[in-house]
Amino acid sequence: MASKVPLFSVEAANRGIDLTGAFSRVANSHWFILGGEVAGFERAFANYVGVGACVSLANGTDALELSLRALDVTRDDSVALVANAGFYGSTAVHAIGANPLYVDIDADSLTMSPSALREALLRHKPKAIIVTHLYGQLAAIEDIAEIASRAGVPLIEDCAQAHGAMRGQRMAGSFGTFGCFSFYPTKNLGALGDGGAVTCSDEALAKKVKVLRQYGWNTKYSVETAGGRNSRMDEVQAAILHEKLPHLDGWNAERKAVARRYGAAFADLPVRTAASVDDDYVAHLYVIRTREREALRAFIGERGVASEVHYPIPDHYQRAYATASAAHDVHLPVTEQSTTEILTLPCFPGMTEEQVNHVIAAVHAFFDRAPRQ
After folding, report:
1. Residue 258 within any structural domain of the chain
2. pLDDT for 257-303, tens place per residue?
Protein backbone atom coordinates (compact mmCIF):
# COMPACT_ATOMS: atom_id res chain seq x y z
CA MET A 1 0.00 0.00 0.00
CA ALA A 2 1.07 3.61 -0.46
CA SER A 3 2.77 5.07 2.59
CA LYS A 4 0.65 7.38 4.70
CA VAL A 5 3.89 8.57 6.24
CA PRO A 6 6.91 8.79 3.91
CA LEU A 7 10.43 8.48 5.21
CA PHE A 8 11.11 12.01 3.94
CA SER A 9 9.14 14.60 1.99
CA VAL A 10 11.00 17.03 -0.25
CA GLU A 11 7.75 18.93 -0.72
CA ALA A 12 7.22 19.40 3.03
CA ALA A 13 10.86 20.25 3.68
CA ASN A 14 10.94 22.96 0.98
CA ARG A 15 7.51 24.43 1.71
CA GLY A 16 7.59 28.22 2.04
CA ILE A 17 11.05 28.71 0.49
CA ASP A 18 11.43 31.06 -2.49
CA LEU A 19 13.28 28.74 -4.83
CA THR A 20 12.16 30.58 -7.97
CA GLY A 21 14.02 33.69 -6.86
CA ALA A 22 17.26 31.73 -6.60
CA PHE A 23 16.77 30.22 -10.06
CA SER A 24 16.01 33.64 -11.53
CA ARG A 25 19.12 35.24 -10.05
CA VAL A 26 21.32 32.62 -11.66
CA ALA A 27 19.52 32.67 -15.01
CA ASN A 28 19.69 36.45 -15.21
CA SER A 29 23.37 36.52 -14.25
CA HIS A 30 24.36 34.32 -17.24
CA TRP A 31 27.15 32.89 -15.06
CA PHE A 32 26.72 29.26 -14.04
CA ILE A 33 30.01 27.90 -12.62
CA LEU A 34 32.19 29.32 -9.81
CA GLY A 35 30.52 32.70 -9.76
CA GLY A 36 29.04 35.03 -7.20
CA GLU A 37 26.45 32.57 -5.86
CA VAL A 38 29.13 29.99 -5.05
CA ALA A 39 31.35 32.59 -3.40
CA GLY A 40 28.43 33.99 -1.41
CA PHE A 41 27.31 30.60 -0.14
CA GLU A 42 30.86 29.60 0.76
CA ARG A 43 31.26 32.74 2.91
CA ALA A 44 27.86 32.26 4.56
CA PHE A 45 28.41 28.59 5.35
CA ALA A 46 31.93 29.17 6.71
CA ASN A 47 30.49 31.84 9.01
CA TYR A 48 27.67 29.51 10.09
CA VAL A 49 30.07 26.68 10.97
CA GLY A 50 32.54 29.09 12.55
CA VAL A 51 35.62 28.38 10.43
CA GLY A 52 37.88 30.38 8.17
CA ALA A 53 36.91 28.83 4.84
CA CYS A 54 34.36 26.74 2.99
CA VAL A 55 35.18 25.16 -0.37
CA SER A 56 32.09 23.96 -2.24
CA LEU A 57 32.27 20.74 -4.24
CA ALA A 58 30.13 18.49 -6.40
CA ASN A 59 29.12 16.09 -3.60
CA GLY A 60 29.93 14.89 -0.12
CA THR A 61 31.99 11.88 -1.17
CA ASP A 62 34.31 14.16 -3.14
CA ALA A 63 34.61 16.26 0.01
CA LEU A 64 35.96 13.24 1.88
CA GLU A 65 38.27 12.13 -0.92
CA LEU A 66 39.71 15.57 -1.65
CA SER A 67 40.27 16.17 2.07
CA LEU A 68 42.30 12.97 2.18
CA ARG A 69 44.23 14.02 -0.90
CA ALA A 70 44.88 17.48 0.56
CA LEU A 71 46.41 15.70 3.57
CA ASP A 72 48.68 13.76 1.19
CA VAL A 73 47.03 10.39 1.81
CA THR A 74 48.24 8.13 -0.97
CA ARG A 75 48.06 4.52 -2.10
CA ASP A 76 48.74 1.98 0.65
CA ASP A 77 48.41 4.53 3.47
CA SER A 78 45.78 3.63 6.06
CA VAL A 79 42.81 5.71 7.22
CA ALA A 80 40.92 5.00 10.45
CA LEU A 81 37.13 5.14 10.22
CA VAL A 82 33.95 3.33 11.23
CA ALA A 83 32.25 0.59 9.21
CA ASN A 84 28.58 1.44 9.90
CA ALA A 85 28.20 4.69 7.94
CA GLY A 86 27.05 3.59 4.51
CA PHE A 87 30.46 3.02 2.86
CA TYR A 88 30.80 6.71 1.92
CA GLY A 89 34.05 7.19 3.81
CA SER A 90 35.26 3.82 2.61
CA THR A 91 34.50 4.84 -0.97
CA ALA A 92 36.81 7.84 -0.61
CA VAL A 93 39.55 5.74 0.97
CA HIS A 94 39.38 3.08 -1.74
CA ALA A 95 39.28 5.73 -4.50
CA ILE A 96 42.76 6.78 -3.44
CA GLY A 97 43.97 3.21 -3.09
CA ALA A 98 44.47 3.60 0.65
CA ASN A 99 43.48 0.97 3.21
CA PRO A 100 40.59 1.33 5.65
CA LEU A 101 41.46 0.75 9.30
CA TYR A 102 38.05 0.01 10.78
CA VAL A 103 37.31 1.06 14.35
CA ASP A 104 34.34 -0.18 16.37
CA ILE A 105 31.55 2.08 17.57
CA ASP A 106 30.05 3.16 20.88
CA ALA A 107 27.05 1.02 21.85
CA ASP A 108 24.87 4.02 22.76
CA SER A 109 25.61 6.64 20.09
CA LEU A 110 26.67 4.22 17.30
CA THR A 111 29.47 6.67 16.48
CA MET A 112 33.21 6.01 16.71
CA SER A 113 34.30 4.65 20.09
CA PRO A 114 37.17 6.71 21.56
CA SER A 115 38.48 3.70 23.43
CA ALA A 116 38.44 1.57 20.25
CA LEU A 117 40.25 4.34 18.38
CA ARG A 118 42.84 4.64 21.13
CA GLU A 119 43.42 0.89 21.01
CA ALA A 120 43.74 0.92 17.20
CA LEU A 121 46.32 3.69 17.36
CA LEU A 122 48.46 1.58 19.66
CA ARG A 123 48.87 -0.91 16.81
CA HIS A 124 48.75 1.33 13.73
CA LYS A 125 49.66 4.87 12.65
CA PRO A 126 47.06 5.87 10.05
CA LYS A 127 47.65 8.86 7.78
CA ALA A 128 44.24 10.30 8.75
CA ILE A 129 41.11 9.62 10.82
CA ILE A 130 37.55 10.08 9.53
CA VAL A 131 34.95 10.43 12.30
CA THR A 132 31.31 10.29 11.19
CA HIS A 133 28.60 12.20 13.05
CA LEU A 134 26.03 9.52 12.26
CA TYR A 135 22.26 10.13 12.08
CA GLY A 136 22.85 13.76 13.10
CA GLN A 137 24.50 12.76 16.38
CA LEU A 138 27.86 14.35 17.15
CA ALA A 139 30.43 11.71 17.97
CA ALA A 140 32.53 12.07 21.13
CA ILE A 141 34.40 14.64 19.10
CA GLU A 142 36.40 16.33 21.86
CA ASP A 143 37.83 13.01 23.06
CA ILE A 144 38.51 11.85 19.51
CA ALA A 145 40.16 15.14 18.58
CA GLU A 146 42.41 14.89 21.62
CA ILE A 147 43.36 11.30 20.79
CA ALA A 148 44.11 12.29 17.19
CA SER A 149 46.18 15.27 18.30
CA ARG A 150 48.24 13.23 20.74
CA ALA A 151 48.92 10.68 18.00
CA GLY A 152 49.80 13.39 15.47
CA VAL A 153 47.11 12.23 13.04
CA PRO A 154 44.87 14.72 11.16
CA LEU A 155 41.14 14.41 11.87
CA ILE A 156 38.42 14.69 9.22
CA GLU A 157 34.80 15.11 10.34
CA ASP A 158 32.15 13.51 8.14
CA CYS A 159 29.29 15.96 8.80
CA ALA A 160 27.02 14.83 5.96
CA GLN A 161 24.23 14.05 8.43
CA ALA A 162 25.01 16.69 11.07
CA HIS A 163 24.52 20.19 9.66
CA GLY A 164 24.07 22.45 12.68
CA ALA A 165 24.87 19.92 15.42
CA MET A 166 26.65 21.66 18.28
CA ARG A 167 28.52 21.01 21.48
CA GLY A 168 29.82 23.79 23.71
CA GLN A 169 28.94 26.45 21.11
CA ARG A 170 31.09 24.70 18.48
CA MET A 171 29.53 23.37 15.31
CA ALA A 172 30.07 20.08 13.55
CA GLY A 173 32.76 20.77 11.00
CA SER A 174 34.83 23.04 13.25
CA PHE A 175 36.61 20.47 15.44
CA GLY A 176 38.80 18.68 12.91
CA THR A 177 41.31 19.66 10.24
CA PHE A 178 38.47 19.36 7.74
CA GLY A 179 34.69 19.14 8.00
CA CYS A 180 33.02 17.36 5.08
CA PHE A 181 29.40 18.04 4.15
CA SER A 182 26.89 16.64 1.70
CA PHE A 183 23.94 18.70 0.46
CA TYR A 184 22.00 15.82 -1.06
CA PRO A 185 18.29 16.80 -1.13
CA THR A 186 17.34 14.80 2.00
CA LYS A 187 20.09 16.29 4.19
CA ASN A 188 19.28 18.78 6.94
CA LEU A 189 20.50 21.44 4.50
CA GLY A 190 19.69 19.99 1.11
CA ALA A 191 20.15 21.26 -2.44
CA LEU A 192 17.95 20.35 -5.40
CA GLY A 193 20.57 17.92 -6.59
CA ASP A 194 24.02 16.85 -5.52
CA GLY A 195 26.40 19.17 -3.73
CA GLY A 196 29.10 19.08 -1.08
CA ALA A 197 31.68 21.18 0.72
CA VAL A 198 34.66 21.10 3.03
CA THR A 199 35.11 23.52 5.91
CA CYS A 200 38.58 24.36 7.14
CA SER A 201 40.47 26.99 9.10
CA ASP A 202 43.86 26.25 7.53
CA GLU A 203 44.21 28.65 4.60
CA ALA A 204 46.84 26.57 2.82
CA LEU A 205 44.78 23.38 3.02
CA ALA A 206 41.62 25.17 1.86
CA LYS A 207 43.56 26.51 -1.13
CA LYS A 208 44.78 22.99 -1.91
CA VAL A 209 41.19 21.68 -2.01
CA LYS A 210 40.26 24.54 -4.36
CA VAL A 211 43.07 23.45 -6.68
CA LEU A 212 42.00 19.80 -6.48
CA ARG A 213 38.34 20.57 -7.26
CA GLN A 214 39.31 22.00 -10.65
CA TYR A 215 41.62 19.47 -12.30
CA GLY A 216 44.63 20.31 -10.13
CA TRP A 217 45.11 23.61 -11.96
CA ASN A 218 47.49 25.97 -10.23
CA THR A 219 46.87 28.36 -13.11
CA LYS A 220 44.37 27.82 -15.91
CA TYR A 221 45.23 24.73 -17.99
CA SER A 222 48.43 24.17 -15.98
CA VAL A 223 48.14 20.99 -13.88
CA GLU A 224 50.74 21.04 -11.14
CA THR A 225 48.85 19.17 -8.40
CA ALA A 226 48.10 15.47 -8.82
CA GLY A 227 44.75 13.95 -7.85
CA GLY A 228 42.51 16.73 -9.15
CA ARG A 229 39.12 16.35 -10.79
CA ASN A 230 36.08 18.31 -11.88
CA SER A 231 34.17 18.70 -8.61
CA ARG A 232 32.52 22.10 -8.72
CA MET A 233 29.19 23.08 -7.19
CA ASP A 234 27.13 24.90 -9.80
CA GLU A 235 25.64 28.35 -9.26
CA VAL A 236 22.06 27.07 -9.05
CA GLN A 237 22.76 24.72 -6.16
CA ALA A 238 24.77 27.40 -4.35
CA ALA A 239 21.90 29.89 -4.75
CA ILE A 240 19.38 27.35 -3.43
CA LEU A 241 21.57 26.49 -0.42
CA HIS A 242 22.17 30.16 0.37
CA GLU A 243 18.42 30.74 0.28
CA LYS A 244 17.78 27.81 2.62
CA LEU A 245 20.64 28.30 5.10
CA PRO A 246 18.78 30.82 7.34
CA HIS A 247 16.05 28.19 7.82
CA LEU A 248 18.40 25.38 8.89
CA ASP A 249 18.19 25.94 12.65
CA GLY A 250 14.40 26.07 12.51
CA TRP A 251 14.22 22.88 10.49
CA ASN A 252 16.58 21.18 12.93
CA ALA A 253 14.29 22.25 15.77
CA GLU A 254 11.35 20.64 13.97
CA ARG A 255 13.29 17.42 13.51
CA LYS A 256 14.26 17.34 17.18
CA ALA A 257 10.68 17.98 18.25
CA VAL A 258 9.63 14.83 16.37
CA ALA A 259 12.54 12.93 17.92
CA ARG A 260 11.48 14.02 21.42
CA ARG A 261 7.94 12.83 20.75
CA TYR A 262 9.24 9.44 19.68
CA GLY A 263 11.61 9.18 22.63
CA ALA A 264 8.83 9.85 25.12
CA ALA A 265 6.33 7.59 23.34
CA PHE A 266 8.71 4.63 23.05
CA ALA A 267 10.28 4.92 26.52
CA ASP A 268 8.38 1.90 27.87
CA LEU A 269 8.82 -0.27 24.78
CA PRO A 270 11.58 -2.88 24.33
CA VAL A 271 13.51 -0.65 21.92
CA ARG A 272 16.61 1.53 22.20
CA THR A 273 16.00 5.09 21.13
CA ALA A 274 18.22 8.04 20.17
CA ALA A 275 21.13 8.58 22.56
CA SER A 276 20.48 12.34 22.72
CA VAL A 277 17.86 14.92 21.79
CA ASP A 278 20.04 17.87 22.80
CA ASP A 279 22.04 20.36 20.71
CA ASP A 280 24.53 17.64 19.74
CA TYR A 281 21.81 15.85 17.77
CA VAL A 282 19.98 17.35 14.79
CA ALA A 283 17.79 14.31 14.05
CA HIS A 284 18.85 13.79 10.46
CA LEU A 285 17.57 10.25 10.98
CA TYR A 286 15.61 8.84 13.88
CA VAL A 287 16.89 5.32 14.46
CA ILE A 288 15.58 2.80 16.95
CA ARG A 289 17.03 -0.60 17.74
CA THR A 290 15.13 -3.80 18.32
CA ARG A 291 15.84 -7.50 17.91
CA GLU A 292 12.48 -7.71 16.13
CA ARG A 293 13.56 -5.28 13.42
CA GLU A 294 12.32 -7.19 10.38
CA ALA A 295 8.96 -8.07 11.89
CA LEU A 296 8.44 -4.49 13.10
CA ARG A 297 9.38 -3.08 9.72
CA ALA A 298 6.90 -5.33 7.92
CA PHE A 299 4.16 -4.57 10.46
CA ILE A 300 4.40 -0.78 10.27
CA GLY A 301 4.84 -0.96 6.50
CA GLU A 302 1.44 -2.66 6.23
CA ARG A 303 0.05 0.33 8.13
CA GLY A 304 1.52 2.84 5.73
CA VAL A 305 4.66 3.86 7.62
CA ALA A 306 7.80 3.97 5.50
CA SER A 307 11.07 2.88 7.08
CA GLU A 308 14.65 2.14 6.08
CA VAL A 309 17.80 0.49 7.42
CA HIS A 310 20.76 2.85 7.66
CA TYR A 311 22.85 0.75 7.02
CA PRO A 312 22.35 -3.00 6.61
CA ILE A 313 25.85 -4.14 5.58
CA PRO A 314 29.00 -3.16 7.49
CA ASP A 315 31.71 -1.77 5.22
CA HIS A 316 34.11 -4.64 5.89
CA TYR A 317 31.48 -7.11 4.64
CA GLN A 318 30.84 -5.36 1.30
CA ARG A 319 31.54 -7.97 -1.37
CA ALA A 320 33.36 -5.67 -3.79
CA TYR A 321 36.13 -5.13 -1.24
CA ALA A 322 35.86 -8.26 0.88
CA THR A 323 39.37 -9.43 0.01
CA ALA A 324 40.96 -6.03 0.55
CA SER A 325 39.10 -5.54 3.82
CA ALA A 326 40.03 -9.01 5.05
CA ALA A 327 36.69 -9.08 6.82
CA HIS A 328 37.49 -12.29 8.66
CA ASP A 329 40.34 -10.49 10.44
CA VAL A 330 38.28 -7.45 11.47
CA HIS A 331 36.55 -7.75 14.83
CA LEU A 332 33.79 -5.13 15.24
CA PRO A 333 31.20 -6.74 17.53
CA VAL A 334 29.17 -3.62 18.29
CA THR A 335 29.07 -2.57 14.63
CA GLU A 336 28.01 -6.02 13.48
CA GLN A 337 25.31 -6.42 16.13
CA SER A 338 23.84 -2.98 15.49
CA THR A 339 23.28 -3.65 11.78
CA THR A 340 20.82 -6.43 12.68
CA GLU A 341 18.76 -4.16 14.97
CA ILE A 342 18.60 -0.63 13.52
CA LEU A 343 15.47 0.80 11.92
CA THR A 344 14.93 4.37 10.70
CA LEU A 345 11.52 5.94 11.24
CA PRO A 346 10.14 9.05 9.48
CA CYS A 347 11.51 12.28 10.95
CA PHE A 348 11.61 15.42 8.83
CA PRO A 349 10.67 19.12 8.90
CA GLY A 350 7.09 19.71 7.89
CA MET A 351 5.94 16.38 9.33
CA THR A 352 2.40 16.82 10.60
CA GLU A 353 1.07 16.00 14.05
CA GLU A 354 -1.17 13.40 12.44
CA GLN A 355 1.80 11.72 10.76
CA VAL A 356 3.82 11.62 13.98
CA ASN A 357 0.87 10.14 15.85
CA HIS A 358 0.37 7.54 13.12
CA VAL A 359 3.99 6.38 13.39
CA ILE A 360 3.76 6.16 17.19
CA ALA A 361 0.49 4.25 17.02
CA ALA A 362 1.88 1.78 14.47
CA VAL A 363 4.97 1.03 16.57
CA HIS A 364 2.90 0.63 19.73
CA ALA A 365 0.44 -1.63 17.93
CA PHE A 366 3.29 -3.96 16.99
CA PHE A 367 4.53 -4.37 20.56
CA ASP A 368 0.99 -4.55 21.97
CA ARG A 369 -0.10 -7.30 19.59
CA ALA A 370 0.97 -10.12 21.94
CA PRO A 371 2.31 -10.57 25.47
CA ARG A 372 6.00 -9.72 25.64
CA GLN A 373 8.43 -12.46 26.48
Report:
1. yes
2. 999 999 999 999 999 999 999 999 999 999 999 999 999 999 999 99
Closest by CA position to 59, among listed 212, 188, 231, 187: 231
Q: What is the DSSP string of 13-30?
A: HHTT--HHHHHHHHHHHT
233 DSSP 8-state letter: -
Beta pairing class for 128-132 and 155-158:
parallel
3-class SS at 130? strand
What is the pLDDT averaged over residues 98-116?
98
Query: Are both 358 and 285 inside the same structural domain?
Result: yes
pLDDT band at 373; cut points 50, 70, 90: very low
Range of the domain at 209: 10-103+110-246
Q: State mean pLDDT over 196-225.
A: 97
Q: Please confirm whether the linkage preceding 311 is cis (ω < 30° from 0).
A: yes
Distance between CA atoms of residues 165 and 173, nearest Å: 9
- Output the pTM of the full model: 0.96
Average pLDDT over every residue of 136-143: 98
Q: Where are any strands of DSSP class E within the chain?
A: 53-57, 78-81, 99-102, 128-132, 155-158, 166-167, 170-171, 178-182, 196-200, 217-219, 222-223, 286-289, 342-345
Contact (Cβ atoms closer than 8 angstroms) between residue 146 and residue 121 = no
